[in-house]
TrEMBL record:
SUPFAM superfamilies with a match to the protein in the record: NAD(P)-binding Rossmann-fold domains
Family designation: Belongs to the short-chain dehydrogenases/reductases (SDR) family.
Highest classification ranks of the organism: Bacteria, Pseudomonadati, Pseudomonadota, Alphaproteobacteria, Hyphomicrobiales
Protein name from the UniProt record: SDR family NAD(P)-dependent oxidoreductase
Entry EC number(s): 1.1.1.-
Length: 195
């Protein structure tokens, strides 16, 4: 999904700073996007690091002076009932699926609030709303993403900020996912905000 999201942003004139733990796949993604110009930067890392989460936002801002959109797409699907879920499973799932979103959103909202607005998309899951069987940590983390979105939006951001929480259907997306934040160069052609 992340690869497709990056391509869509680039097609709409955005510069993309893309992150993922899989450095090789990430480089493939940005290399393909850069065949027709300077469109994307690969910034590999582990979302369990707060410093890495914040660096993704800072890199986009430092490179372009803007932050128009943030898409929190990366996530892991942890299988197991409550009895099959270890402490490590639980912590890893929440670190990647939820806490990383908190870190990137907090950093991004701070900048967007002071710089005229922006858009954030956090990818949840239908299983965060209607939990499926035997995925205790995954369903709970995705439910938390949906709630985090609702409670974190209206007050700190105001009207010029837009947020969405997406519940993708599995069969509609490919399996290349990247967490990304995007920034659009001022010199590039304009266009509406991406949500
Ligand atoms: N595909 C589906 O059926 C489906 C359904 C509902 C929700 N979703 C959600 O949509 C999003 C994308 O799904 P997908 O199927 O494209 O996923 P995917 O498994 O293909 O890709 C996930 C990406 O996250 C990266 N990642 C994992 N741990 C990381 C870490 N610690 N640091 C940095 N990167 C890390 C992986 O390297 C991978 O590229 C996820 O949040 C997922 O939960 C997917």
């Amino acid at each position: 999904m992340g690869r497709a999201i990056c391509a869509k942003f680039v097609a709409n004139g955005y510069f993309v700073v893309a992150g993922d733990a899989n450095a090789e796949a990430l480089q493939d993604t940005t290399t393909a996007l850069n065949k027709i110009g300077e469109n994307a930067l690969a910034r590999p890392g582990d979302l369990r690091s707060k410093a890495y989460c914040e660096d993704l936002i800072d890199t986009a801002i430092n490179l372009t002076g803007r932050l128009d959109a943030l898409v929190n797409n990366s996530g892991i699907i942890t299988r197991g009932t409550i009895l099959e879920t270890s402490d490590e499973d639980w912590e890893r799932t929440f670190d990647i699926n939820l806490t990383a979103i908190f870190y990137t959103c907090r950093r991004a909202v701070r900048f967007m609030k002071e710089n005229g607005g922006g858009s954030i998309v956090n990818i949840s899951s239908t299983w965060g709303v209607y939990p499926g069987p035997s995925h205790a940590a995954y369903c709970a983390s995705k439910a938390a993403v949906a709630t985090f979105f609702k409670m974190s939006w209206a007050r700190p951001c105001g009207r010029r900020h837009q947020g969405q929480c997406c519940l993708p259907r599995g069969d509609r997306y490919s399996h290349a996912s990247v967490r990304l934040c995007t920034s659009r160069f001022r010199s590039r052609h304009g266009g509406g905000r991406t949500q």
